[in-house]
């Protein structure tokens, strides 16, 4: 029997724990019959529970670092992609300027590479007076785009056969 008559031992509790009618747990006083043995597993469990917050915190910090690393890599990939597009666009414009007849025309190239495809899309626009200059501009564009060793698609939106005024420098 327990020293305090208002305490009752609950059936689902281990023998060293008692259930107060108020709802709190009470450990009976130590005796000479293996109380250290009864309390040792409880102390080991308390130590194991004490480690859990550190493990959870460590896991959350690591997950956070992994997510930040992933976000930085995605942003860096986007920057590299836009830098490569801008570089190709400048190279095409420079190649057109080196050709005497194309240098005077108001033609432009816009380069983009969508996230969901690896194909680079090159959109060329502007008025061109004849089919020979049209073919020359497309050939130069193909040559510059093929230097990247990537797949590309040229969207031809040149207006062939229109009268154009000389470009003002």
Can you tell me about this structure?
The structure is a single chain. With 169 residues, this protein is of the alpha+beta class. Among the domains are: 1-30, no CATH class; 80-160, Fe-S cluster assembly (FSCA) (GMP Synthetase, Chain A, domain 3, 2-Layer Sandwich). 50% of the residues lie in helices and 16% in strands. It contains 3 helices and 5 strands. It has helices spanning 35-98, 100-103, 131-146, and strands spanning 18-19, 25-26, 108-112, 120-128, 152-160. Strand 3 (108-112) and strand 4 (120-128) form a beta hairpin. Helix 1 (35-98) packs antiparallel against helix 3 (131-146). The longest helix has 64 residues, at 35-98. The termini are far apart.
- CATH topology label of one domain: GMP Synthetase, Chain A, domain 3
Spatial extent as radius of gyration: 39 Å
Which assembly state applies to the chains in this document? single chain
Silhouette: rod-shaped
Q: What are the low-pLDDT stretches, counting only 5+ consecutive residues below 50?
A: 19-23
Q: Which strands sit side by side, in order, in the main sheet?
A: 3-4-5
CATH homology superfamily of one domain:
Fe-S cluster assembly (FSCA)
Summing up helix and strand content along with how strands pair, one would put the structural category as alpha+beta
Sheet having the most strands = 3 strands, mixed
Q: What's the overall average pLDDT, rounded?
A: 76
What are the secondary-structure elements, in order, as H or E? EEHHEEHE
**Highest-level CATH class of one domain:** Alpha Beta
> What is the tally of helical segments?
3
